[in-house]
């Protein structure tokens, strides 16, 4: 057993689509499963006495060790910082860890040299200072900053828009603590395109830690909630250490935590280093972890600080008619962690940004409240001055191009979102409409959808609106034989017809301009059918062209 207290942190970055130099064989689970799930690998351990060889196994020999993973995915260098005392030493390489003997030697040193903190990072880069597969740019991770008498080390797993990070960091703080690219000439921060998002995230976190009078958990909570509200899609897994404690956070990528009470150590990893999960506990999104040497990890659910944001439209006036709900748009709920558990309105119902309610004449107060799974609640309200008015009526008949009445046609009035359907005679009627201009949409399976625009509804008046629906085209583009699929058989079917040796393509459409056409066999979408469509289909099937297109004048109906 080693007697030294040890903190150990490892990060591995991967970016899909830049894999080089693939080896002839590797564990099928690593190739097709866990190793390809997200864009980084992160490992950290802390203890007063880590058992011998634990670090070496996690870095070098275990099935999910960083060395094994870098054989296939993480080829653009590595960096290791180790703390034999209060000042860390740092070694970097532009070569993949799997084939660089220096990586093994530093892993052995970390396992045996009584280091208090060790951080490592293996890389497959696409952003900032990097040259994918060139083996010429040293890995700038881990990032080191000397603050408050300590050397802080940081590594990040994920992708965050740099523009978001720039906007969140205070200008004065940034001028005093600019990016340094880890001092590498190839990462010269005077060229902002070479700055890595990870370093900007590090600066943002340190700014808030300092502002919290070096209360790390408070600073991290403030920084992360600010980031998540600004960019809820950010991927922000990271580990941070000041050489004494360890902090880790999960957002966007997998993370696991191991607490070995028998041997008195804890570990955090983006993927468990052993083949099976065993005693590794899944860390959930938005969980922040604090680990002190020899102590059980402390989990903080950041979602308790991520209350929904609820917005309501400005106070307004609307007309209403007896017997019809009034609907008002402009209500919005944004929850950065997508954790809304309940939405309530004090009157009526809420759906997709709209509140519908039965108003009384005069002032109505509409209150919208959202509560998330952590019992955070937010509310807003709108004062609605409701004015009673006389309703209008919309009526009409819907027929096809042969003047045959069409039943079951959906008649939908935009904005008001009220609707009706036609009867067996093709007639419809929508009563109790608030006067105004409306777009009215008509749709029925097998027919082309039609919208009549700017239809005036007047009080105490009936507006008549008759519509003719064109037959829709029920087909799969290119499907000449009508079996619902497109493949080489359809090409043969079309060729045989054009040679006079077989039946006509199945699906036809009577389009006003072109006349009857074989819509499905019209592979290039120009609303005609001939040998050019055969060539178009053949090119696509050979991988040399575009897939079959629908005729712009005879598109497939919405039911297909």
Secondary-structure blueprint:
Elements: E1 6-13, H1 28-32, E2 40-47, H2 54-61, H3 66-70, E3 78-83, E4 89-93, H4 101-112, E5 117-122, E6 143-147, E7 150-157, H5 162-168, H6 171-176, H7 197-211, H8 216-230, E8 237-241, E9 245-249, E10 256-260, E11 265-269, E12 281-282, E13 287-292, E14 298-301, E15 309-311, E16 316-320, E17 326-329, E18 332-334, E19 340-345, E20 349-351, E21 354-357, E22 362-372, E23 377-388, E24 392-400, E25 410-413, E26 418-421, E27 427-433, E28 436-443, E29 450-457, E30 462-464, E31 467-469, H9 488-498, E32 509-511, E33 515-517, H10 531-541
Parallel strand pairs: 1-5, 16-23, 24-30, 24-31
Antiparallel strand pairs: 1-2, 2-11, 3-4, 3-5, 6-7, 7-8, 8-9, 9-13, 10-11, 10-12, 13-14, 15-18, 17-21, 19-22, 20-21, 22-23, 24-27, 25-26, 25-28, 28-29, 32-33
Describe this structure in words.
With 560 residues, the chain is of the alpha+beta class. The protein folds into 4 domains: 6-305, 4-Layer Sandwich (Glutamine Phosphoribosylpyrophosphate, subunit 1, domain 1); 309-381; 392-469, Carboxypeptidase-like, regulatory domain (Immunoglobulin-like), CATH 2.60.40.1120; 475-560, Type 1 dockerin domain, CATH 1.10.1330.10. The chain contains 10 helices and 33 strands. It has an 8-stranded mixed sheet, covered by helices on one side. It has a 6-stranded antiparallel sheet with strand order 6-7-8-9-13-14. The protein has a 4-stranded mixed sheet with strand order 16-23-22-19, with no helix packed on it. Strand 6 (143-147) and strand 7 (150-157) form a beta hairpin. Helix 7 packs across helix 8 (216-230). The longest helix has 15 residues, at 197-211. The chain is flat and about 90 Å long. It starts with 5 loop residues before the first strand and ends in a 19-residue tail after the last helix. Residues 1-38 have low confidence and may be disordered.
């Amino acid at each position: 057993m080693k007697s030294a207290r040890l903190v150990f942190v490892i990060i591995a970055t991967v970016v899909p689509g830049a894999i080089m130099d693939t080896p002839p064989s590797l564990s099928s689970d690593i190739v097709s499963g866990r190793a390809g799930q997200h864009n980084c690998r992160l490992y950290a351990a802390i203890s007063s006495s880590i058992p011998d060889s634990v670090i070496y196994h996690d870095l070098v020999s275990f099935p999910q060790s960083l060395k094994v993973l870098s054989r296939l995915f993480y080829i653009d260098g590595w960096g290791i910082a180790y703390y034999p005392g209060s000042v860390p030493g740092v070694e970097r390489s532009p070569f993949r860890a799997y084939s660089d003997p220096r990586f093994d030697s530093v892993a052995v040193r970390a396992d045996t040299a009584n280091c208090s903190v060790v951080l490592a990072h293996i890389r497959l880069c696409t952003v900032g200072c990097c040259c994918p597969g060139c083996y010429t740019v040293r890995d700038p991770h881990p990032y080191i900053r000397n603050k408050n008498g300590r050397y802080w080390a940081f590594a990040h797993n994920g992708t965050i828009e740099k523009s978001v990070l720039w906007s969140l960091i205070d200008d004065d703080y940034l001028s005093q603590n600019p990016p340094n690219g880890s001092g590498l000439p190839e990462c010269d921060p005077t060229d902002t395109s070479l700055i890595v998002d990870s370093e900007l995230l590090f600066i943002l976190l340190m700014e808030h830690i300092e502002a919290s009078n070096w209360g790390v958990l408070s600073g991290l909570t403030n920084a992360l909630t600010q980031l998540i509200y600004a960019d809820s899609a950010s991927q922000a897994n990271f580990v941070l250490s000041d050489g004494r404690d360890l902090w880790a956070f999960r957002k966007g990528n997998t993370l696991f935590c191991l607490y070995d009470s028998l041997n008195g150590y804890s570990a955090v990893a983006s993927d468990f280093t052993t083949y099976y999960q065993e005693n590794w506990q899944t860390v959930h999104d938005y969980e922040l972890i604090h680990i002190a040497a020899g102590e059980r990890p402390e989990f903080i659910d950041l979602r308790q600080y991520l209350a929904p944001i609820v917005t309501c439209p400005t106070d307004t006036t609307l007309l209403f008619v007896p017997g019809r709900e009034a609907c008002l748009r402009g209500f919005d709920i944004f929850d950065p962690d997508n954790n809304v558990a309940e939405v309530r309105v004090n009157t009526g119902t809420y759906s997709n940004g709209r509140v519908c309610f039965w108003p009384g004449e005069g002032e109505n107060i509409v209150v919208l409240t959202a509560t998330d799974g952590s019992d955070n609640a937010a509310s807003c309200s709108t004062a609605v001055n409701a004015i009673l008015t006389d309703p209008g009526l919309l009526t009409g008949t819907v027929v096809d191009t042969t003047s045959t009445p069409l039943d079951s046609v959906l008649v939908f009035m935009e904005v008001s979102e009220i609707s009706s359907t036609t009867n067996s005679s093709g007639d419809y009627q929508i009563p109790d409409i608030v006067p105004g201009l409306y777009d009215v949409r008509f749709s029925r399976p097998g027919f082309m959808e039609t919208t009549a625009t700017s239809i005036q509804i007047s009080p105490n008046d009936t507006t008549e609106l008759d519509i003719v629906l064109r037959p829709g085209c029920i087909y799969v583009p290119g499907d000449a034989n009508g079996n619902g699929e497109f493949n080489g058989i359809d090409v043969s079917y079309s060729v045989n017809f054009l040679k006079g040796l077989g039946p006509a393509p199945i699906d036809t459409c009577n389009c006003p301009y072109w006349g009857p056409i074989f819509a499905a066999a019209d592979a290039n979408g120009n609303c005609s059918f001939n040998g050019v469509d055969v060539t178009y289909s053949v090119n696509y099937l050979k991988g040399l062209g575009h897939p079959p297109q629908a005729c712009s004048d005879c598109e497939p109906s919405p039911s297909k």
